[in-house]
Amino acid sequence: MELDLSPDADWSELYIDGEWRSAEGGETIAVEDPSTRETFARVARATEADVDAAYEAAAAAGEEWAEAPPAQREEVIHEMLDLLEGHDEEIVGLLATEAGGVPAAMGGTSVHLAADQAAEAATVPRRMKGEHAASNIPGKENVVERIPSGVVTVISPWNFPLNLSMRAVAPAIAAGNAVVLKPATNTPITGGLLFAKLFEAAGLPAGVLNVVTGRGSEIGDRVAGHPESDVVAFTGSTPVGRRVASKAAENLATPAMELGGNNVHLVTEDADLDQAIDAAVFGSFVHQGQVCISINRHLVQESVYDEYVARLTERAESLPVGSAHDEGVVVGPIIDESQRDEMLEYVDETLDAGATLETGGHTVDLDGVDDSLVVAPTVLSDVTNDMSAACFEHFGPIAPVIPFSDVDEAVELANDTEYGLSGSVHAGDVGAGRRIADRLDTGMVHVNDQPINDEAHVPFSGTNASGMGGYNTDEFLNEVTETKWISLQHEPREYPF
Ligand code: NAP
User: Fold this and answer.
1) Ligand 1, residues 50, 169, 226, 237: which to mutate, most atoms within 8 A of Cβ?
2) Most informative mutation of 117, 155, 222 for ligand 1 (most atoms within 8 A of CB)
3) pLDDT grade, residue 1 (50/70/90)?
4) Is 363 helix (H, G, I), strand (E, B) or coil?
């Protein structure tokens, strides 16, 4: 089958029960290239009736798929992985067009990580094992099976669409579930329809994967609370996550939630500043800071604070900014106007509260683009933890730098947030960094690095308002499977009456 994964391909239909169809009512939504601000595609605007059709198909197809031999499930994932790798350049191009992902900084990394996630998912059918437990009752044998949960709902965000859909869709299918995938409206292709094309070409039976594009404000509640849904795997913001989790819980579906973050890059006076600054530049500015695990706050010890701010500012000013389509660009566009305006508002509020603007804080005009979405890499000093750019998840190329006097104060500042996702520590030797890492209340911490790390064979999860449940490895396998206890009474049992 000829696979057209270019931005110009037809992306205007939903994928339900193995068929491409228009939304009921025939409406579509424009998809914009954030670099050029031009509409490059239109996708279907699904209604609740379309959502119902997707779940009906998933529930029906899931029963047979759950019985498919492990080797068949593994083969489909491998086929999909081969197609992904065989079309890597097209997919990197799609990520640039749809998500504003700079190929060298975001697109290539996304495809590489997606391949890693698919390869990990391909091991799921072999790893899915039950157990055998002894019984206290004479003559009884306990068998514990591990079975697929049924229908898994996947709702993904726009910031790393390919990976945040892949890490849920591929293992859920590999474990024998059917899936209904609702991607973000800003990235319905790389977070959704692309998966339909890849899995269809890989030979996945009809109905096992269904993709509904449409606005969360219109179909979100129906998706999150659908009676046919057994697990809701959501990645997105904490406020929407709370609503989605409550809809799932009302329906007694398992909520697997990966939510917002407010991650610190903690640098003590013993740190190797060259290494700390290299890490800081990547962790703050890659993909324009639109990563749930990017550096939200830099905590830097007073004795090295001025040098750190000066060097970070110099590096921020040296980064090439512009269109995600231009060679050599490192910092591309923000996904849309509302995200851009919100982050610039946080910067203004932070300056009004007494912080100093070292560099940035404004949009960058692009030739021929009306109302550019590119924001200059921004460094703010004299920041305190309660200022907007520090206490809110700014999700932009913004580096607020906060001074601290000693490690106890740094740990207190780091933990003074409702979130607990990722973080990084530079404190000289690895042992000193590890001791601080142990005191940070987050699901992930990286010593002598920056917070953006994801390896498909290592658990990925947050604490507190950053989520519940986890991705990768057995963490996610446990979310999308259930145990079933079957006891076998081999001898007549004696009852008390
Ligand atoms: P978002 O606004 O919460 O949206 C996430 C997804 O939820 C989108 O598909 C969205 O659809 C959908 N949605 C919106 N309202 C809904 C509703 N009422 N019911 C069901 N679904 C609904 O998040 P975002 O702005 O796309 O992504 C950025 C956020 O994601 C940040 O907070 C970031 O930290 C977080 N994130 C977390 C992780 C992690 O692993 N912890 C990873 C990446 C991102 P529409 O697009 O149609 O509104």
Assistant:
1) 237
2) 155
3) low
4) strand
Q: State the residue for tokens 């799921």.
A: 124
C-alpha 179 chain-centroid distance? 17
Q: Please answer whether residues 256 and 469 qualify as being in contact, where contact means their C-beta atoms are separated by less than 8 angstroms.
A: yes
Q: Which residue has the tokens 């917070």?
A: 451
Count, residues in the chain: 497
Q: E strands of 51-122, at which residues? A: none
Residues 6+ apart with CB under 8 A from 334: 34, 100, 288, 290, 340, 343, 373, 374, 375, 396
| pLDDT at residue 272 tops 80 | yes
Closest CA to 314 of 358, 356, 275, 271: 358
pLDDT digits (tens, 9 = 90+) for 395-423: 999 999 999 999 999 999 999 999 999 99
Q: What is the mean pLDDT of residues 4-17?
A: 97
Tokens coding 186? 């800003």
pLDDT, mean of residues 35-62: 98
Q: Name beta bridge partners: 255.
A: 232
β-bridge partners, 94: none
Residue 78 · residue 122 · CB < 8 Å: yes
Ligand 1 atom 42 nearest Cα: 292
Q: 88-99 and 108-122 helices cross at what angle (nearest 10)?
A: 120
Active-site residue identified among 292, 358, 391, 393: 292
Please state the rounded mean pLDDT for residues 286-292.
98
Please give the full DSSP string across 427-457, using - where no structure is assigned: -SSHHHHHHHHHHS-SS--EETS-S----TT
Task: Name the CATH superfamily for 14-258+457-484.
Answer: Aldehyde Dehydrogenase; Chain A, domain 1 (3.40.605.10)
Q: Within 6 Å (CB) of ligand 1, which residues are found?
A: 155-160, 164, 182-186, 215-217, 220-221, 223-224, 235-237, 240, 243-244, 258-261, 292, 393, 421, 462, 466-467
Query: Is pLDDT above 70 for 268?
Result: yes
Q: Is 292 a catalytic residue?
A: yes
CA 314 to ligand 1 center in whole angstroms: 33
Ligand 1 atom at minimal distance to the Cα of residue 292 = 34
Domain-wise residue ranges, the chain: 14-258+457-484, 263-447
Q: What is the distance of C-alpha 395 from the center of its chain? A: 13
User: Among 32, 98, 200, 258, which one carries the catalytic annotation?
Assistant: 258
CA distance 198 to 82: 10
Q: Domain 263-447: give its CATH superfamily.
A: Aldehyde Dehydrogenase; Chain A, domain 2 (3.40.309.10)
216: left (phi over 0), alpha (psi -120 to 50) or beta: alpha
Which residue out of 47, 159, 422 has the highest number of ligand 1 atoms within 8 Å of its CB and is therefore the one to mutate?
Answer: 159
Secondary structure of residue 314 in the 3-state scheme: helix
Q: Tell me, in angstroms, the distance from the centre of ligand 1 to residue 220's CA.
A: 11
